[in-house]
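Researcher: Hi, I'm a grad student and pretty new to this. My advisor asked me to get structures for two proteins we've been looking at. I'm not sure of the right format, so I'll just paste the first sequence and hope you can take it from there.
Model: That works fine. Here's the first sequence with its structure tokens right after it:
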Amino acid sequence: MDELILKKIDLEKYVWKDLPPSNGFKGRIRLLSGGEIVQDTMNRYNKGFQTLFFAFYVDLTSKHSASAVTDSWLSTTPIPLPTSSSDVAEWADNTFIVHKVVGPDLDLNSLRSELGQSIVPSKSGAGFIFHTHHAPFDGVGVKIVANIFLKEFASALGGAQIDKGLEWGTEMDNLLPAACDVLRPTEPIPIHPGSDEEPTFNHPFYSATRQVMQAFANSAQTSYNLKPRQGDPGWPTTHCQELTFSNEESATFLKSLKGKNGSYTVAHAAHSALVMVNVYDNPPSLENSSKFVSCQFLVNARQYLQEPYPGRNGYPGYALSVVPHGFPLSLFFSQSGDLLPLDKKMLVTLMRLARPRDIYNGLKEMPVAFSFMIPASDIFAVWLKQLAASGNTPDNTFRLSHDGAGEAFLDRHFQDSSGQTLPSLKKFFISLNLPDPGPYGAPRFLRATGACCASIKKSNFYDLPAIANISAIANIFMIHPQLPVYP
């Protein structure tokens, strides 16, 4: 392992480079870096693993004229745009998959399940809720893109001319750089191949990289997962189940997380409940008590980038750092060696370990907080490809995604140039395709509405009650009594 880490790296190889002109068209290309390459490897070799979805529901305050919306775009592009209803309909049919619903109820989850079985990129060129390969965007990135889109959408609804900064034909000049090429000056970087300095573990970059790789190796050796299941033989059928709490239930839930002995978040509860699902599904014996229910903490690493990228809308790409974390199985055993009940007391015990503050602070205190992802991801990508080639299914573990309150990256209301509120964000969800047996949980909420929402993905060969982790959260805090007692 050490020889794979102690390598000089030229970060210039991740810069966008010109492609030879083809049929009068220009293009640019760059190598994937960091977590991007891991996402691409998983997607290529594990049947759509990790394709990313982001969907949102928008309320309009009033009807708006189609002509005003059309006029706002016409002057921005030299390309002829459709103006008649028939031309617009023809363009839409050739450009989008339109999910038409008769009646007042629109269910984007059903569209997500339908699109989840398609391949990204699609051979037909199709794909939008926001359905994307995970390499160009992380969860924060898709929220930033959606927020920018909704701002432009509001301007168009108001009949205002679209931002003059949107100049057709300049797309290549505005390509987002790889995160590793816009690191803040204080973030250590690998030694350049042209340097006379030799890599050693006295160098902070290589020392931190080895520390993280050792942590991942230890996690893999001591990991205790869901019970073994047969891998999916074909392209998976995707499913997503959702539970929405009312404003009153959400208020009770959030209040219960703020206690005298510590303050917790929705993510802490969801993470801990997933750990309990793992133990419920695969009850450990006492000889496994030295193992851990492991999970990777995904860290939004934009704070380690140079200006203007750390800002709220600064980097709509992929900038995730990953640190392993495990819950010791010994917590689930009494002094006499019996399994303890999966109740509120157990959930709170796990939540104390799930609190990411100490983990995140530990990451901040490391001399290298993000750039270690470059060599670590290169090493993991090769390993993941070898596993896929040998027929191994992805890790039989749960995943959790949570970016905090929606307002952290999404505006609640969007205004036109006159200040009138036009569309308002009503609800959103983010989802990942995971064809492995493990569940994927994604709690989310908007502070303005006060309603919490939690969803969990299950694959077509996953036989646990997919709603179990949500029921655990709800019942343990006694805010949803109509759900069955967990487990």
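Researcher: Oh nice, that was easy. Here's the second one.
Model: And its structure:
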Amino acid sequence: MKISINGNGKRAALDVETVVRKRYARGAQRKEAGLCCAAAYDSKYLKVIPKEILEKDYGCGDPSAFVQEGDVVLDLGSGAGKICYIASQIVGPKGKVIGIDFNPPMLALARKYQKNVGDRIGWHNVEFKEGKIQDLRAVEDESVDLIVSNCVLNLVKTEEKTKLFREMHRVLKRGGRAAISDITSDEPVPAGLQRDPELWSGCISGAFQEKEFLRAFEEAGFYGIQIEKRDEKPWRTVKGIEFRSVTITAYKGKEGPCWERNQAVIYKGPWKQVADDDRHIFRRGVRTAVCDKTFQILSNAPYRKDFFFVSPRKEIPPSQEKPFNCSRNPERNPRETKGLKYRKTTKKSSVCLEGGGCC
């Protein structure tokens, strides 16, 4: 497909949706090797999936590795349905999988084997819906446990990528996760490449620059953003710009009020200090005062393994909670958690382990 020239002799804007729709419609009819880079999947989940789907799966990673039993999973740009059918097996009969794609031929291919695959798995918990991934009107607010996507976000028009991340955040439940595999660039993609229809539909021209991909999650309100995988070797190099596959995980749930409950966390190390996405600083070995919301966030993945948690000796009832003072001394005095009148003295034997020596 060529880029048209307008009456002023200037290049017209690339019709991204049209070139993507046509390229992937062809990919639903015959295998398009240029639309994917190889990724390893757990072979036990592939046994029930027809060969035609496996051959026409176009991705760059395996976000299904982050699916958990019982999850409601949303696959953005579900294509031929491979990730959906893998996720179906992991979530089990109590879970649910929704695939969203705007390409009718791809949806037809995914639905072609829907009953057959469900019969093989032993349950039918997969649903395919037609729609754009940046406009998830078919998905209710806070209804999804995990969003996955495999090399599709880069295909969305640049001016609609912010909306895409807002929609992802909207449909996730509090505590929900995103696991996104996609192609990123090490340098900004110049305008000339962005106007190339083959490069755009081939997951190159619309790629996020690495740091901008992470920033998109931050600006949408996600936390705990982590690079789970980054291919050392580029998938492609175009005019000196390297394009490679990465997998990012992120969480939703830092919204809401901050209440004081006399809690503290102690960062284990090895870094001298670290900062979270809300600019809280945690110094190694220091009792850092946190609000209840932050305490709960840090008590769960992906932070839990990095901290010790100090709860107050006496819980503060909800009726006595006060707003957390974010400008306070960040170090929590031990007396705040133990109580000002705490004067307990233990016997020597009470701190020794039964059957062992004294501490």
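Researcher: Is there anything I should tell my advisor about the second?
Model: You could mention this: The two ends are 76 Å apart (CA to CA).
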